[in-house]
Amino acid sequence: MFIELQLDDFRISKNQKIKLGKAITAIAGHNATGKSTILGILGNSSELKSKYGTTITDKQFKTEFSELFKGSKIHDKASGSIGFIEYHHPAFTDPMKIGLRVTWQK
């Protein structure tokens, strides 16, 4: 379960912490305020293997970064850390952090 998303430097988000609810989290705001970016990062950070379930079109639950974001070498960071996601896994006692980073493919 995701607990918190921290974006240090990605697109419109600078030093932003987003706490996520245990059951439901609502994301609302005006156009171009980062709602889709938040959903894209959360989606890209998780997947469900096909053996545990599939979409209604019989595909695996996962998102590829390139399907969600169109990179801009002018406006996007060239490389490096952009933040982290804190999550809790039932197999572990303490929350864990997954680092988020950007790299450009050559």
From TrEMBL:
InterPro entries: P-loop_NTPase, Rad50/SbcC_AAA. One of its GO terms (molecular function) is ATP hydrolysis activity. Pfam families: AAA_23. It comes from the Bacteria. Coiled coil: none annotated. Residues 4-39 form the Rad50/SbcC-type AAA domain. Signal peptide: none annotated. One of its GO terms (biological process) is double-strand break repair. This is Rad50/SbcC-type AAA domain-containing protein.
